[in-house]
Design goal:
Blueprint (H helix, E strand, L loop, with lengths): L11 H15 L2 H5 L4 H14 L13 H16 L4
Helix pairs in contact: 1-3, 3-4
């Protein structure tokens, strides 16, 4: 569960997938921030947020509109799954 191990991957996609798994396992959004591929980074954010139990999570933390959308999407999915 150490993001440093992902630096050993030579391909961007492999590094991104590695970081996504570490982010999900550690529930650390800062690990998601390290991901170079935008779609994988977004997947890391919302899968990490979906793993959270607190659906009163404030989406105001996000640095840009695309991540705001991801945060809202994660909250909606959480509500659908009964994580309210």
């Amino acid at each position: 569960n150490d993001p440093q191990i992902c630096k050993n991957a030579t391909e961007i996609e492999d590094r991104s997938r590695c970081l996504r798994h570490v982010g999900k396992a550690t529930k650390d959004l800062e690990v998601c921030d390290m991901i170079e591929v935008q779609t994988t980074r977004n997947h890391c954010y919302y899968s990490t947020l979906l793993a959270e139990d607190d659906w009163k999570y404030d989406c105001g933390w996000v640095p840009d509109w695309s991540l705001m959308y991801v945060c809202f999407f994660a909250k909606e999915e959480g509500v659908k799954l009964g994580n309210t």
